[in-house]
Prior knowledge:
InterPro entries: Kinase-like_dom_sf, MAPK, Prot_kinase_dom, Protein_kinase_ATP_BS, Ser/Thr_kinase_AS. With 449 residues, the protein is α+β, with helices and mostly antiparallel strands.
Amino acid sequence: MERYKMIKEVGDGTFGSVWRALNRDTGEIVAIKKMKKKYYSWEECVNLREVKSLRKMNHPNIVKLKEVIRENDILYFVFEYMECNLYQLMKDRGNLFSEAEVRNWCFQVFQGLAYMHQRGYFHRDLKPENLLVSKSILKIADLGLAREISSGPPYTEYVSTRWYRAPEVLLQSPVYSSAVDMWAMGAIMAELFTLRPLFPGSSEADEIYKICGVLGSPSKDSWAEGLTLARAINYQFPQFAGVHLSTLISSASEDAVSLITSLCSWDSCKRPTAVEALQHPFFQSCFYVPPSLRSRAAVTRTPPSAAGTRGTLEQKSIRRYSVASKPTSNFSSPKLHASLSTGVQRKLEMDNQDANKNDKSLKSSAKQPRYRPPARNNPTSIYMGRNARGVSDATEKLANMTVGSGRQSVRQPLPPPMKAGGWHGPSDLFLGRSQEIQPGRTYTRKVVG
Length: 449
């Protein structure tokens, strides 16, 4: 640890504290998480969930673990440094975020979650404090509660901060999946629009009460499994009709409300996966999702190459994006080589062969051109269903034609043939509404490391 100079403590949590530090050799600013528990063996360190999960992930929207150091039985995690988290941004905010800002952040979270879920992990503790931001870049952090999907149930009851906890977990279900992350994202997304939590329960029972007040009480049709879970713990749901989310999130667009509604579904099977969320119309102005992050059912589809696909995209956006099964994977932990001497600094190199192997498909897909969906007022939409070559042939034929009407022929210039890749004109990505909000929320949460 002599290579690092501790500058300032920036967070303190249940399991450790986080410091802003300086790498004396490179001058780089890093974040160092100092664990409170003592670790007496290196094997105990590398078997931690946070270490095992982060070693297998290399994604621009997941915080990078640079190295792990054990010195004098104290464990340190060295991360890349991020300026703040979403909770801090909302706490200090005077007016609402624009929809473009919310869209940008949520799109990045869903990309990170899609990568994480397809590699066999789900986070289980998503909340604004664990979403780190530097300028316009967002990264998922704190994978201390991350769990392998392949590990199988039963899982622990307490998995996340109460306000973002899925109803199946509140009802003590021993079986849950990556859908708990999707519920948390629905609650976080709503909070980004309003700067207030959607379900601010003061206890587990009050949390369910708050959820029923917004979504309405579950029924046998909407969530039969939930009624069974409630009977098992002798719990009776309060009876509410529920309200439409558009009345609670007035600044959000219809597409935004639609996505939040689907994410906050009582039944976990009815929530979209991270891959499906990326294909929602709310993200239509964002970049094209590469095949490596698409669901198995969507891999056979290719990027649209003409404005003629606009109708197909709109039709698909109306219905829910169905996937046969959620991807699961089994991973074996790579062998680690470390010094056997005790009380001496040890490092865990994160650039291992397994991570490189897992990311080949992601790197290859990154080379593909990014797709931007067609704009609504696309002037080239008159070529719907035609290819560029056919338009060129027609242009040549019309150019050689003359009309014998006694008038001079006036040749009207035709629009250029449409190129593959869709419409690249201006989009409304940066349009958004912003309005004043009355102060009324008191944040009492700690910033967790």
